[in-house]
Design goal:
Uridine Diphospho-n-acetylenolpyruvylglucosamine Reductase, domain 3, Alpha-Beta Plaits, eight-stranded antiparallel β-sheet, 19 strands, FAD-bd_PCMH-like_sf, FAD binding, FAD-bd_oxidored_4_C
């Protein structure tokens, strides 16, 4: 397709306007600007139009129109992704398909512990709707006030409660999807057991819109806990943190719903750029762990559990200090320390981010080995290491040396440091993307680290479901 061919251009837009209304076909640079740059401002693309359908049927109509005019579509939710998966390319030939108007909570079934929501529902609104039904929707992450459930499903987001509740994939029971041909698959079944063939649901979760467009989902709910206990514990190293994790799991079992690791440098950055976020201890420690217990019995039961497990940690020399949140305000303050780390990094300047996972048992060794390799390759580089220790997912980031030029540092070292990190991830039987997705950022790295058999299977699926390559092209997999 030639983007300068005005007859094709007009015919496509006219058909879209007829399908969803002129007000929802954005065409001016000013109207489209907020949809064309990713959250990290790493990628800025161009679009033929930004399309905002309001129903699943309108999404299907847009997909059929795009097929008739050979226009590629880039699905987008809250545009909070970190790998460029929802940003169009620079050709100006693609159209962004925003799901933001599909915001309905279609149903809550407390007896079945499910909620059915449309893809454009903001995560915080899903959590709120669940609470209003006296239930818990446990997916929680820093962008929950703006990210959407469709985007969470598209990237298989993890968040802070994976340790107990699993990733978005594990929280999903059924999907509604518009296929690349413009058909609607209604798989909105709230069943825990359905053994009737291929698991189509799991094909679309984590596929980042490359196989079809998720328009609605049935998600699991849980009883609201009677109490939540949030605490911080100071430890010497990631190895000690793993010992504390073992103690906590033995003491609390499934009541342990959060276990986050934060290095001292992470908290130093938070204090530097957000001084209102106070360091919780009277002295500095190499590592701080954030723990959360969710108890269905009582606050006292949760407090007794925590005090018992921490006494064991002190007795065994695993922990040096601990502080327990006494109220909701203090609990929120503890979580704010954790959630301000990426914000502080952004304030500090450009950095090299990695969203990796390795088996939990290997985390300490991975951090030690990779840190030494990076120090040798890029002297003075500062490591910002934090994340979901309880499920093996680390945000393993490299900050420019103190006083250095961030852009020059990235230009000189990014490729080499990515290679070091990803090679060591694979050596430790891990993954180069644990929850942020591949997007366009990691397509080349994904092709390098995956086996030929995996790549062949993924390409076969893509060709089978999207033979014309119109669903979010250039993302997740290099078709060769």
């Amino acid at each position: 397709m030639n983007p300068t061919d005005l007859s094709t251009h007009d015919a496509f837009l006219d058909a879209c306007i007829a399908a969803i209304g002129d007000a929802h076909v954005l065409r001016t640079p000013a109207d489209m600007a907020g949809y064309l740059t990713d959250w990290r401002k790493r990628y800025t693309g161009q679009a033929r139009a930004v399309l905002r359908p309001g129903t699943t049927e309108e999404v299907a109509a847009i997909v059929r129109i795009a097929g008739a005019h050979d226009v590629a579509l880039v699905p987008q939710g809250g545009n909070t992704g970190l790998s460029g998966g929802a940003t169009p390319d620079v050709s100006g030939t693609q159209a962004v398909l925003s799901l933001a108007r599909l915001r309905a909570v279609r149903a809550i079934d407390p007896a079945n512990n499910t909620i059915t929501v449309e893809a454009g529902c903001v995560l915080a609104d899903v959590q709120r709707a669940a609470r209003e039904g006296n239930r818990l929707f446990p997916l929680s992450l820093a962008a929950e006030g703006s990210c959407t459930i469709g985007g969470n499903l598209a990237t298989n987001a993890g968040g802070t409660a994976v340790l107990c509740y699993g990733t978005t994939r594990e929280l999903c029971l059924g999907l509604e999807v518009v296929t690349p041909s413009g058909e609607i698959w209604n798989g909105l079944r709230g069943l825990r057991k359905d053994n009737t063939g291929y698991d189509l649901r799991d094909l679309f979760i984590g596929a980042e819109g490359t196989l079809g467009i998720i328009t609605a989902a049935v998600m699991k709910l849980y009883p609201l806990p009677a109490a939540q206990m949030t605490a911080l514990a100071a430890v010497e190293s990631p190895h000690a943190a793993l010992k504390l994790l073992d103690i906590a799991q033995r003491a609390a079992g499934p009541l342990l719903t959060g276990f986050e690791l934060m290095s001292d440098f992470c908290l130093e950055l938070v204090g530097r750029h957000f001084p209102e976020q106070r360091y919780p201890f009277s002295q500095r420690y190499p590592q701080v762990v954030l723990l959360e217990l969710s108890d269905n019995e009582s606050e006292q039961h949760a407090r007794d559990l925590f005090e018992g497990l921490m006494q064991t940690a002190f007795d065994e020399g695993v922990a040096h200090d601990a502080v327990v949140a006494q109220n909701l305000t203090e609990s929120r303050a503890f979580w704010n320390l954790r959630e301000h780390i990426p914000l502080a990094q952004a304030e500090e300047g450009l950095n090299i981010k990695h969203d990796i996972a390795v088996p939990i048992s290997r985390i300490g060794h991975f951090i030690d080995e990779t840190g030494a390799l990076i120090a040798q390759a890029a002297p003075g580089a500062r490591m910002v290491v934090f994340g979901h220790l309880g499920d093996g997912n680390l945000h393993y980031n490299v900050q420019t040396p103190e006083g250095g030029d961030p852009r020059a540092f990235l230009k000189t070292y990014q490729s080499a440091l990515n290679r070091i990190v990803y090679d060591n991830v694979i050596a430790h039987q891990g993954t180069i993307s644990a929850e942020h997705g591949i997007g366009q950022l990691k397509v080349g790295d994904n092709a390098r680290v995956k086996s030929p058999v995996e790549l062949s299977l993924m390409r076969a699926l893509k060709h089978a479901l999207d033979p014309h390559g119109r669903m979010n092209p250039g993302k997740v997999i290099d078709l060769g």
